[in-house]
Amino acid sequence: MKKIFLIISAVLMTTMLFAQTPKPKVYDEEADPFKDIEKAVQLAKENNKHVFIFTGGNWCPWCMRLDKFIHEDAEIKAAYMINMKL
After folding, report:
1. Rounded to 5 degrees, what angle do the CA atoms 72, 61, 80 make?
2. Burial class (CB in 10 A: 0-12, 13-18, 19+), 43
3. CA 6 → CA 11, 27, 85, distances in Å?
4. Residue range 5-33: average pLDDT?
């Protein structure tokens, strides 16, 4: 009886492990942040604006929630995306 329970438990755990859908990646892992900041600073100087540095990671659940929040609210998305030229 214990063997059957262990086998069923192992199968269920394996199934749960592989059944998870991959999380979307909202941050470009190949981006060079130093070049992006340099471009942003130059663009801000040309337009007499400030630079807002937004950091996060594809591994961070709070970063994923913030990205979802920004893109689901039209007013916030418009304010956030207004000068995204990089």
Report:
1. 35
2. middle
3. 9, 40, 56
4. 78
What is the total residue count of the chain?
A: 86
pLDDT at 8: 85
Task: Classify 57 in phi/psi space as left (phi over 0), alpha (psi -120 to 50) or beta.
Answer: beta
- HSE (CB half, 13 Å, CA atoms) of 61? 0
Spell out the alpha helix ranges (H) of 1-86. 2-19, 33-47, 61-72, 74-81
Decide if pLDDT at 42 tops 90. yes
Comparing CA positions, the residue from 72, 45, 68 lying closest to residue 56 is 68
